[in-house]
Write a structure and sequence with these properties.
Dipeptide-binding Protein, domain 3, 4-stranded antiparallel β-sheet, about 25% helix
Length: about 600
């Protein structure tokens, strides 16, 4: 499905100030429609088969007399010789754009061209292996051919563009500068800017509300205040100590749920800073007392929290019995290693190198995020005891945390990620090719780059054998531990809070909490209970750019924030862990390996 919106007006919330901070993950899931008959061979039109251009030829069937007709006899265009794998899927019967146009193979081809060719695209390399896009046995069946095995195919086609609304698919950089992009029926975009997003229900469709309004809030304390005041109907807050207590209000419902989310500490050696020194980086890494962090910060959020030793993932198939980060805390060994390398303490008790130069560590902290400030309160004195001079740089208001992280202007950061078990997502976060820079944001925000890790990720991406893939992932986790760039902290619970007098039904809201994220079907089932015709959602993070191709914040803002409500994609989740197909397609896309 896709979402589009009509202009009916703007919502104005009293007292809501704009500070972009954390993340609202909005993902689309479910299944609908009839069964698809996937096919590895096409009986309809083809596209250009060169990687630099993906176009759709008109559908052609030829009768015995040679005239174009609607006969079932058709020409068959052979697949490119380079085709190794094919992904087939069938659009659902109601997969339409807001203007009523049905989604088609042309939209898929335009998307490939735009993401591959638009200057500044963060996905320019992700679609390089696509050599053919064509219709299958039916007009709504799409077959995409690749010139190699792509085990990470579920990170592709996570957003589609409406070809009929694009003049030039090779460059969409300025396409939505003055107007919102088309979206998925039964919604239409009324407003989408830095202050709010308003989705209106299209004509002749009856839902439990007339408008869905999302507004950026940022500061968690303010987020709770506007919920309690009734200015918003729903929030999905980042948790910190005291949030649960502040939400303990008879006028509110607050749900806490175990989830696959994880929070990790990253050390940046890609900016030429202090952590480029391997000895110093390892010593610092070994000086972080994670058990103390749990006791001082995470236990206050959810009692019984434990240090997470698998790595920056939580998937059971990859983490069962895998603990490469166990025993990381070794302050004695850290101090000895620095001393042997010629480091000494200066007059303030901080480590200085052999030349006598002191080194400060810049820790970028999201100032509107209560948990990050609590971590700073615990970690800064803890590390000072070990001789490390950590300086907190707060990012708030005009400073968008994700953008600053993507630019790499930091030595240390801590942030949470969703626990989605997909090899494509995992590979993007740690691949050298996906490293984010100030000019080209990418999925790899940490700056991590390691040739051995890249080789292992490539092997994991090129196999369809799950045990073999899990073996490569385990080796990657061991490598991440050995290089001392990332230190997993804990698994995090998820939360949702709403006004039961304004929003329902409870069963749908509980479902959202269970999955730890939005599902498109849930949005359609929400009901406005106070009669004002709209549902207002307070969102912590807001994208710094509205173009779904030039995803300015990296890490797929379209998937983590308001963009995911607007931009249709093939993949979503129903459990907060695994990726599944969305209502856009009739059933799970079908993969065929054409040659090995």
């Amino acid at each position: 499905m896709d979402v589009t919106f009509r202009h009916r007006g703007c919502w104005t919330g009293r007292g809501v100030r704009r500070v972009a901070v954390a993340a609202l993950l909005v993902l689309i899931t479910s299944s609908c429609g009839d069964e698809v008959v996937p096919s590895a061979s096409s009986r309809v039109e083809t596209t250009a088969t060169v990687a630099s251009s993906t176009t759709i030829a008109p559908s052609t069937t030829v009768a015995d007399d040679g005239d174009p007709t609607t006969s079932t006899s058709s020409t068959t265009v052979p697949l490119p010789d380079s085709a190794v794998m094919q992904l087939s899927f069938q659009f659902a019967a109601d997969a339409r754009w807001s203007d009523g146009v049905k989604m088609s193979v042309a939209d898929v081809a335009c998307t490939v061209e735009a993401l591959r060719s638009t200057p500044g695209s963060t996905e320019s390399s992700a679609y390089d292996s696509v050599v053919d896009v064509r219709a299958g046995r039916a007009d709504d069946v799409v077959e995409v051919s690749f010139d190699r095995i792509e085990s990470g195919y579920r990170v592709l086609f996570d957003r589609l563009l409406q070809a009929s609304a694009v003049d030039d698919c090779s460059d969409v950089s300025a396409l939505w500068a003055d107007s919102p992009p088309p979206s998925m029926w039964p919604f239409a975009v009324e407003v989408w800017n830095s202050a709010q997003m308003i989705l209106g229900v299209v004509e002749d469709v009856e839902l439990g509300f007339e408008r869905l309004v999302l507004v950026p809030i940022g500061d968690i304390d303010l987020e709770v205040d506007v919920l309690r005041s009734g200015e918003v109907d729903l929030i999905v807050p980042e948790l910190s100590a005291g949030v649960a207590e502040r939400l303990d209000d008879p006028n509110l419902r607050f749900e806490l749920q175990a989830s696959g989310r994880h929070e990790d500490l990253y050390l940046n050696d890609a900016n030429g800073g202090i952590f480029s020194d391997e000895v110093f980086r390892e010593a610092f890494w070994r000086s972080v007392d994670r058990e103390r962090l749990v006791a001082e910060v995470y236990d206050e959020i959810r009692a019984g929290s434990q240090v997470w030793d698998c790595g920056p993932i939580t998937a059971a198939q990859w983490c069962d019995g895998v603990t490469p980060f166990a025993g990381s805390f070794d302050p004695g060994g850290a101090g000895l290693a620095l001393t042997e390398a010629g480091w000494t303490f200066d007059g303030d008790g901080h480590w200085q190198d052999a030349s006598g130069e002191p080194h400060q560590i810049r820790w970028l902290v999201d100032a509107g995020h209560g948990r990050q400030l609590e971590l700073a309160t615990s970690l800064v004195p803890m590390l000072a005891e070990q001789g490390f001079d950590v300086v907190v740089e707060e990012c708030s208001r005009d400073c968008v945390f994700r953008d600053r992280v993507a630019a790499g202007a930091w030595d240390m950061v801590i942030y949470a990620e969703e626990g989605l078990a997909d090899i494509g997502l995992f590979a993007r976060r740690y691949s050298c090719d996906e490293r984010s820079t100030g000019s080209v944001p990418g999925w790899n925000l940490s700056g991590f780059c390691d040739a051995e890790t890249d080789a292992l990720l490539n092997r994991a991406l090129s196999t369809r054998d799950e045990p073999e893939q899990a073996g490569y992932v385990e080796q990657v986790l061991e490598r991440l531990a050995a290089t001392r760039h990332v230190l997993p902290l804990v698994r995090l619970p998820s939360a949702i809070a709403w006004r039961p007098d304004k929003l329902g039904p409870e069963s749908v809201l509980t479902s959202i909490r269970t999955a730890a994220m939005w599902e498109f079907d849930d949005l359609l089932q929400l009901e406005d209970l106070d009669g004002d015709g709209q549902i207002v959602i307070g969102v912590e993070q807001w994208p710094s750019c509205e173009n779904p191709v030039l995803s300015c914040g990296g890490v797929g803002w379209y998937r983590r924030s308001v963009g995911a409500v607007m931009v249709p994609g093939l993949w979503g989740t129903d459990d907060g862990s695994s990726l599944v197909h969305t209502p856009l397609v009739r059933q799970e896309p079908f993969v065929t390996v054409l040659k090995r």
